[in-house]
Every structure is written in structure tokens, then in C-alpha cells.
Amino acid sequence: MTTSLERYTERHHLAFDLIVAGVLFGFVILGAALGTPGTAHPRTLVPALLLAGVSCAALVGCRSHPRTAVAVTAVCVSAASAVGYLLTPLLLAPVMAALYWLAALTERKITYACCLATIAALVTTAMISDTGHHALVLKTVGPAVWLLLPVTAGRAVRIRRAYTEAVMEAAQARAEHAERTREEEARHRVAEERMRIARELHDVVAHHLALANAQASTAAHLARDHPEQAHKILTGLAATTSSALRELKATVGVLRRTDDPDAPLEPSPGLDRLPELTDAFASAGLPVTVTLRGEPRRLSPGVDLTAFRIVQEALTNVTKHAAAHTAHVRLDYARDRLTITITDDGTTTAAATTAAAAATAATAEAPAPGHGFGLIGMRERAHSVGGALTAGSRPEGGFEVTAELPLHPDGPPPSPDTEVRQT
């Protein structure tokens, strides 16, 4: 309620100051008519009327010129005291109001200096020119006490205003910081989503195109001498392209609206599709063996997808960059981690070696043309679920990719018909 009153008076300050000046004018006239028994008192109120009019007129501009208002009202009250009027709170009302606005609008040092100067002037005038022989307490202690009260009230108002402004500025700063944080978080999430979609598209396109290329090359090689085998491989090629289309549709579907009825609902692939993946590579001329160690467990969707994509990309790289005859995948289930190792017996090409070096550097910059994003994407996938990935050439020949992923149990162990086949 106080804040609302202050806002109203600030919006209509001139009318409010005129009303206050009129009220204080009446207080001064009433105070000039009062006196103490047994003391002389001026018989006329004409001097009081003149001095009250001047001091109250000065109060109209006290908001913009508080020091001037204090000086004018102090002189008028001193003159009233010299004439013989008793310094009552009613007579002191104009200078008290001026000191209040001075304390509320100016610095502490200026306020205290003006207050002490006013008290000294009034007390000195009352002591020297007291024609009414008033009591000493009424001429010294009384004015000093009454003039200190508005100064204290004005300082309290100034401190409260400063505190309120500081709180509002702090709240505004927090709001701005929260807005910037939300914008940065939104940009970060958009960037992460773009990277996730880019990795999915790369894995799907690179894997299926490399596999389709290998199957087509093998079928062309066998078409003349072994037409039956070529026909079988071409059948597998059709399945590969169909699978590529399904996965591309599922991946691009994340860009659709959530309420789109045509958005694909196919679940993300996991290690339960590893037999299908190895059969596809076998049809392309790359036999893949899979070995399990430890007790298989059901993985969380994110870890399961990451594990499948790493195996898929590593085998795709074997097809693209290594003259390998076989590849081997080892899944090692420990207490809290799943270690995936993909090796081959081929000869690593220069492109694969350079790509491995780029992935080890783990920079955000794009690799050089022709080096691809395969190993970098696998490393990012492993890091996204709290794991790690290393890749490099083996001393005995071939290439090795090792990924360590944290296990997040999600329900009972998989049933035997969904476990990865051990070859």
C-alpha cells in the first residue's frame, strides 16, 4: 500500500505538494497562536502569516531543489523565533518537511550537514533573541529533537528505495541471465540433435551403400561362372537396399512433427539385430564371427543403439578400407561395462589410418576430404553414453576398434531367441 501511495504521489507530485503546503500553512498559523503561560507572546499573527506563506511556497519546489527549500524554511523559522514565537513542532513543520525531502533525495553527508546547520541557526537565534523568556529546554533540546526526526525518516525511505531498486535490478539481471541460459541451452540442444541426426544418416547411408557396392561387385564377378550364387547375392542386394530405405525413413522421421500420423514408429536397432548384420556382410563376401564373453544383459536403448552402430560402422570400414578376408566381433560383458572389439585380418589403407588419426585428435573440425566421419562418429557415439573408443592398426596386421560402454540394466536378461548368435 505504501508503494502504491508513493507511485501515486510521484505521478501527481505538484498537486500533492500544494496540498501538503496548504496543510503545513495551517499548522504554522496554529503554532504561532500557541504560547506558554507566563511568557510574552506577539499580539499579532501578521508576521507568522507572511513567514508561513514564504516557507510553504518554498516547499512546492522541494523535490527539485531540496537544499534551497531547507535554507528558505530555516530562515523563515529563525525569523519567527526572533519575533518571539515559540518553536513548537507546528511552527517547525515547514523546515521539518524540507529536511525530510532533503534526506530522502540527497546524500547522507549533505543531509547531516544541512540538518546540523539548521539546528545551530535556530538554537542560536532562540538563545539570542528570545523576547518571551521561554524555558531553555524549549529553545534548545526541543528544536533539535524535532528536526532530527524527519531526517531519520527520510534516510529510512532512501535506504528502502535503494534496497528495492537493488532487488529489482538483481531480479532483472537474473531474468536476463535465465533468458540467455535458455537460449544457449536451446542452441546447444539443436546442435546436439543435428549431430545425432547426422551420425544416424552417415551410419545408415555409409553402411548400406558400402554393403550394396560389395554385393553388386561380387554378383558381377560371379554372374558368368556361378549364376546361382550371383542370383542369391542379388537377392541379398534387394534386401539391403530395402533395409536402407526403411532406416532412412525412420531416421528422417525425427524431423517430422510429433503429431504426424505418417511418422515412422520403427524401433531403433540394437544388438539383437547383430545376426542380421553379420549375414548381410557375409553375403557381400566378408565372413564375420561373433564371440560372447560373460553373461549377456538387456541394455538401455541408448547404449544398445550405440553398440549396434559402432559394430555396423566398424564392419563397414573393413569393407571400404581393408583388404580383409574375415572380421571378428567380440562382446565382453563385465559387471558394469560392455567391451566391444572389432578386428580384421586385412591390410589397413592410408585413408583408414588418416581417419583414425583424425578421430584420435577428437577435434570439432571436419576431416579432410575423403577421410570421412566414420571413426569420429563412433567416438562421439561412445562419449554420448559415457563410454570410450579407441581405434588403430594391430601389430600383427589388420585394424582394431575397441569400445567400452557402461551397462545400464533395463529389465530381465534377454530371452535365448533374441540373444546374439555365437559363432
Q: Which residues sit in consecutive blocks of at least 5 with pLDDT less than 50?
A: 358-371, 409-423
Strand order of the largest sheet: 1-2-3-5-4
Radius of gyration, rounded? 46 Å
Give me the CATH architecture of the domain at 270-423, please. Answer: 2-Layer Sandwich
Give the helix tally.
13
Overall number of strands: 5
Strand content: 5-15%
Q: Using the alpha-carbon principal axes, give the shape.
A: rod-shaped
Residue-averaged pLDDT = 77
The helix content is: 55-70%
Under the CATH scheme, which class of the domain at 270-423? Alpha Beta
CATH H-level superfamily of the domain at 270-423: Histidine kinase-like ATPase, C-terminal domain
Q: Tell me the series of helices and strands, N- to C-terminal.
A: HHHHHHHHHHEHEEHHEE
Distance between the termini: 82 Å
Structural class: alpha+beta
CATH T-level topology of the domain at 270-423 = Heat Shock Protein 90
Main beta sheet strand tally, sense and closure: 5 strands, mixed
Structure description:
The protein has 423 residues and is of the alpha+beta class. Among the domains are: 2-139, no CATH class; 270-423, Histidine kinase-like ATPase, C-terminal domain (Heat Shock Protein 90, 2-Layer Sandwich). The protein is 62% helix and 8% strand. It has helices at residues 2-11, 13-33, 46-59, 66-83, 93-105, 108-128, 136-139, 141-222, 227-252, 274-283, 301-321, 350-361, 374-384, and strands at residues 288-293, 327-333, 337-344, 388-393, 399-406. Strands 1-2-3-5-4 form a five-stranded mixed sheet. Strand 4 (388-393) and strand 5 (399-406) form a beta hairpin. The longest helix is centred in the middle third of the chain and has 82 residues, at 141-222. Residues 358-371 and 409-423 have low confidence and may be disordered.
